[in-house]
Specification:
The chain is an alpha/beta fold and about 475 residues long. The protein contains 16 helices and 13 strands. Helix 4 links the parallel strand 2 and strand 3. Helix 2 runs antiparallel to helix 3 and helix 9 crosses helix 12. The N and C termini lie close together (about 10 Å).
Length: about 475
Amino acid sequence: MGTISKIHEMLVSKQCSCTELTKSYLDEIEKSNGELNAYVNITGEEALKAAEQVDKKISGGEEIGMLEGVPMTLKDNISTKGIETTCCSKILTGYKPIYNATVWDELANQNAVMLGKTNMDEFAMGSSCETSYFGGATNPFNTKHVSGGSSGGVASAVGANIAAYGLGSDTGGSIRQPASFCGIVGLKPTYGAVSRYGLIAYASSLDQIGPITKSVEDASIVFDAISKFDDRDSTSQGNLGGETYSKLNNDIKGMKIGIAHEYLDGVRDDVKESILKAAEVYKSLGAEIVYFDLPELKFALPVYYIIACAEASSNLGRYDGIRFGYKTEHYNGTHDMVCRTRSEGFGDEVKKRILLGTYVLSAGYYDAYYKKAQNLRGTIVKAFDNAFEKCDVILAPTVPMTAFEMGHAVSDPIETYLTDICTVPVNIAGLPGVSVPCGFNANGMPIGMQLIGKRFDESTILNAAYKYQQAAPENFKDTKWGVKL
C-alpha cells in the first residue's frame, strides 16, 4: 500500500484527524528543514484551513476522495494565488501570483493540503538544486550530498517524509534525476498530458509537470488527478491513454523491454550493474529483454541545451524590474534600470543560459545552431518511433551516477551537465518516463532506473514499474526523517 492510500485509510477510519496529521507534518518540517533545506516557504496556516475542511466532511459522514487531506508540496515555480512563488530567484522575491496553476486548482478543489513551496534550482536551471537563491536542498540519505535538480526540494521533502507527495517540473530530467538521487519515484508525463498553465516557464516546448512520490502507486494516483485537458494551455491534450491506477498489476508476461546500448555508454559500473539486475528481474516476471542500437542519442544533449537555452532567453525577457519582482535601487534611465535589475536579480547559471540562448538565436548563428538543433530533434523523435517497433518499453539508467557531494557542481560543472545525458532524450521526443529506485552504491546512495514509453502510454510504464516494485521491494528504502505512518 502506498503512502496516499495509507493516509486515506487513516482518515476514513478516523485513526487520526486531518488536522492532527497536518500538524505532525508541520512539526517534522520545523525539526528537519534547517538541515534539509527542502522548503523555502512553509504555508502552515493555509494547510490547517484545508485540513479543517476535510475534518468537517468526515465528521459529517461525507465520503472523501483519495487525495483529500493528504499533505503535499509544490515546486516553487508552480503558481499559487496570493502565495509567494519565486522560482528560487532573487528577481522574483516578493512575487505573489494573482492566479493558480491549473494543477494546483485541480488538487485544491480536492482539498489537498499544501504544506509549502519547495526548493529548486533557480528557474529550474541546474542539476543539483544548488543554483537556488536560498541555497540547495540536501539528500535525505546523506545530507552532505545533493538532492538533485531542478526539483530537488520536492524530492528531498518526499524522500524525508515531510510531504506525502509533491509536484515538480521536468524540462530535461528535473523530476526523474532528483527522484533517482533520493531513492523515490518520479514521473515525467507525455508532453501535453498535464497542463502547463501557471508553470513559470523555462523552455516551453520541453517543460512538463509531474508527480514525485514514495511509490509507483502514489505516482499513478496523482497523475490521474492532474492529467486533465485545459483549454488555457494551447498544448494541452489531457490523459489520452486513460486512467493508469486501475491498470496497475496487469501481467507483463511477454512484454518486450528494450535496452539501447548507447544508454549504457559512459555509465558508472555500479549503475550499469543495477540496470542489468533490473532486467533480470523483468525476465523472471516473463518479460523479454531486447537489445538494440539508438545512435541518435549522441545528439540529445547538445540539441537539448541549444533549444532549452534559446527558449529560456525568450521566456525570461519578461523580467525587467517594471512589472513585478526585484528592481534595482540605483540606475540612470530605463535601459540602465533593466540591465542592472537583470544583472543583480539573476544568478550566474541563469545568466549563462540566457546568453547562450540569445547567441544561438542571433543573426548569422540561427541556422548553424538553433535550426540545426530543431532538425535533429525531429531525427530523435523518429528514432524513438522506430525503437518502439522493436519493444513496448525502454529500460535505461535515470542518471549515469549517484548523488554527488554538495559543492561538486561548482568544482566540476561539465560532469554536472552530463547528469542529464540519459533524461533529456525523453523531453526532446515528448515521451513519458518514470524513474524508479533499483539499487544502492557501496556508500548506500540510491540508484535509479527509468522506464520510457510511447506517447500517452503512461499506464504501460507505470504498470511495469509497479511490477518491479513488487518484485524488488528492498530497493524502496525509507529514510530516518519525518512522519512515520
